[in-house]
Specification:
The longest helix is centred in the N-terminal third of the chain and has 25 residues, at 123-147. The strands form five sheets. An eight-stranded antiparallel beta sheet has the order 7-8-11-14-9-2-20-19, with helices on one face. The protein has a six-stranded antiparallel beta sheet with strand order 10-3-18-21-22-15, with helices on one face. Strands 1-5-4 form a three-stranded antiparallel beta sheet, with no helix packed on it. By secondary structure, the chain is of the alpha+beta class.
Length: 636
């Protein structure tokens, strides 16, 4: 059995280290140091002599020194602790002598799993967590058998299954009951692992979207009950100032959006189709909130909302775990806007573009018709391409696109249209966001990727911001079914584990509390229960858990051999034996030798061990002898 015990310890240590390495957050040097576990545990399984004490001590001092230095230099104590655990696991694999050493490995592995849960959102972590739970419970059961000096091969299935079931139940209760807060562990947010978006900052170079149009990374997943079939434009950020190569956001003043009952009312709009979107946003390096235009309100309980005077909406801070929020939108192509002269600003050197705009729109009288003519012209006469050559020196990207290359992607089309509209005196701005998305039939939601990043145009016509999209449509490439199935699993993990929120807690508790809502006399409305009553279902579940565990304990106590052993232990304690509930049979033998009653105790313990751990059925004669020896203990 010691071989099995050592093997389980090795698996547990490797699982803990792997949980950290898989996050992608630990340093390369520390990840490589974890490889030292392999020869360390190979030596242990081959019963090799542990490493010299002086070597273990020296390596421990070096590791602690590196930890202090890393903490001071990087300022990231959390990640330094992660590195420390990997190094200590490697060192400990060469220094496993006593049972307590194994318990140190268990504790370190558990700590690594907790740290990893703070560093990753990956679905793979769920599989690692399940493996860890099974191995951890197995290790604890084996530890118990070794403590009891069990020599035969144990049957681990039943105890591991029962304890694992109890552990899962208690974990689920704890997961639901623990308060959700918008703050992360140890109070420090980190931007590692965030998706590096482009086009969602106050300064964006023209052509920056070309780097992400081939990137299939998922940015967000959206659930909608509506059967809306219009093109999906997930509005993000507007940019208003153009210097010829770079777009800037000059309207930067922001206001806090008032909140009531976890709902932030951004603006009141009439008309349009009311559509609710449940957005599961991946961790981004941007605070922009996305939604179908035009956003009316936002619901969420892990953030606060701010808005600027251009109508763009933002989180008050970066959300390192991503975000789960609900957007209510009035889906329409036009909505009310306010004029500003910044929307007519033009850089120098746009004369040829202005002349082209005048020629295209000369036949039309209204601003709407002129804008539609420019939109149609760009769609029909230019080619969509992600391979855009750099313009010659002294030539702006807009003129190079319009009169030389005549090919480009969304930013070139949208920028060119805004420049031409402004040259005609029509206020316009560029909008960066995402367009379209693929519907995942397995999960019933829409997947929006980096490759869906898009730029379009909003023109202020008759006091209404109207959307125009001059970019030609591009055929969509649908991913394989297996990819969509895996993504639906990731969606479930992100929604119900990573994104489990205070609102979800309330929904679950409310479902249990409904029976406690007593109808008021003469009214159809239920009486409101106090907040303390919300935790009644959790208390009931905990009581059930304790009762279930006690029932199992009683079941074991009613076993004849074990029940009489417990009774004997109780008697011997009254006779002066130093015995506790954790005292082993070997310790009882030593106590019997100290008190000169070794013969009777030795015989009783031999019968107990033979039938308790040997899987033998006690004969009537042995049963009588067992009881006789128990009676003798009263005479000691």
């Amino acid at each position: 059995m010691p071989i099995i015990y050592n093997l389980v310890t090795a698996v547990l240590a490797l699982t803990g280290c792997f949980s950290l390495v898989m996050t992608g957050e630990v340093g390369l040097l520390m990840s490589v140091s974890g490889i030292a576990l392999l020869p360390g545990y190979y030596r242990l399984l081959k019963n090799r002599t542990p490493a010299p004490r002086w070597a273990i001590g020296m390596l421990s001092v070096v590791t602690l020194t590196v930890f202090v230095f890393e903490s001071a230099v990087s300022g990231d104590v959390f990640l330094a602790v992660a590195h420390l655990t990997i190094a200590f696991q490697a060192i400990k694999s060469y220094d496993l002598k006593e049972p307590w050493d194994h318990l140190q490995v268990y504790f370190m592995s558990l700590l690594q799993l907790i740290i990893a849960s703070e560093l990753t959102r990956s679905l793979l972590f769920g599989a690692v967590f399940v493996l860890f739970m099974v191995v951890f419970v197995t290790a604890m059961v084996l530890s118990h058998f070794l403590k009891e000096d069990y020599r035969a091969r144990p049957d681990l299935k039943k105890p591991v299954f029962v304890i694992l079931l109890l552990t899962i139940m208690s974990t689920l209760i704890f997961f639901v009951a623990v308060p959700r807060t918008p703050f992360r562990f140890m109070g420090k947010e980190r931007d590692r692992g965030e998706i590096k978006t482009t086009g969602f900052s106050d300064r964006v170079d023209i052509g920056s979207f070309g780097d992400v149009k081939n990137d299939p990374t998922v940015v967000m997943r959206i659930e909608m009950k509506s059967n809306l079939r219009v093109p999906f434009y997930w509005r993000g950020l507007t940019l208003d100032y153009f210097d010829g190569t770079t777009w800037k956001k000059s309207i930067v003043g922001k206001r806090n959006v008032p909140e009531k009952d976890n709902e932030y009312v951004v603006a009141q709009y009439s008309g349009g189709t009311e559509v609710e979107q449940k957005v599961f946003l991946e961790p981004l390096d941007s605070k922009v909130i996305f939604g179908l235009s035009r956003v009316r309100s936002i619901k969420g309980d892990s953030f606060r909302v701010r808005a600027d005077y251009a109508g763009d909406i933002f989180f008050s801070r970066n959300l390192w775990r991503g975000a789960y929020y609900t957007v209510s939108s009035a889906v329409t192509r036009s909505y009310p806007g306010v004029f500003s002269r910044i929307y007519l600003q033009l850089p120098h050197g746009m004369g040829r573009a202005a002349a082209l705009a005048k020629r295209i729109s000369s036949r039309f009288e209204t601003e709407r018709r002129k804008a539609m003519a420019i939109e149609d012209y760009l769609k029909r006469n230019y080619k969509y391409s992600l391979s855009v050559p750099k313009p010659p020196p002294g030539v702006s990207p807009v003129e190079n696109f319009l009169f030389r290359s005549k090919e480009g992607y969304c930013e070139y089309y949208a920028t060119s249209m805004v420049v031409m509209l402004r040259s005609l005196g029509i206020p316009a701005r560029i909008v960066n966001g995402f367009h379209g998305g693929e519907r995942n039939e397995y999960g019933g939601y829409i997947i929006v990727r980096q490759s869906d990043a898009h730029s379009w145009v909003e023109a202020l016509i008759n006091g209404m911001w109207t959307r125009f999209d001059p970019t030609p449509s591009v055929p969509e490439v649908r991913p394989p079914a297996l990819s969509l199935l895996l993504d639906s699993l990731r969606m479930t993990w992100a929604r119900y584990v990573i994104g489990f929120s205070f609102a979800d807690q309330r929904s679950i508790i409310r479902a249990f509390v409904v029976p406690f809502s007593v109808p008021a006399v003469g009214s159809l409305r239920p009486l409101k229960t106090g907040p303390a009553l919300y935790f009644v279902p959790l208390l009931v579940a905990l009581v059930f858990l304790v009762y279930f565990a006690a029932g199992l304990a009683r079941h074991r106590r009613y076993d004849f051999v074990s029940a009489k052993f417990v009774a004997a232990r109780r008697m011997l304690r009254k006779k002066g034996f130093r015995i506790t509930s954790a005292t082993t049979t070997g310790e009882i033998r030593r106590e019997a030798q100290r008190l000169n009653v070794r013969e009777e105790v030795e015989r009783f313990l031999d019968i107990y061990e033979r039938h308790r751990f040997g899987a033998r059925v006690m004969s009537p004669a042995e049963r009588r002898e067992y009881l006789s020896l128990l009676r003798e203990f009263r005479k000691l």
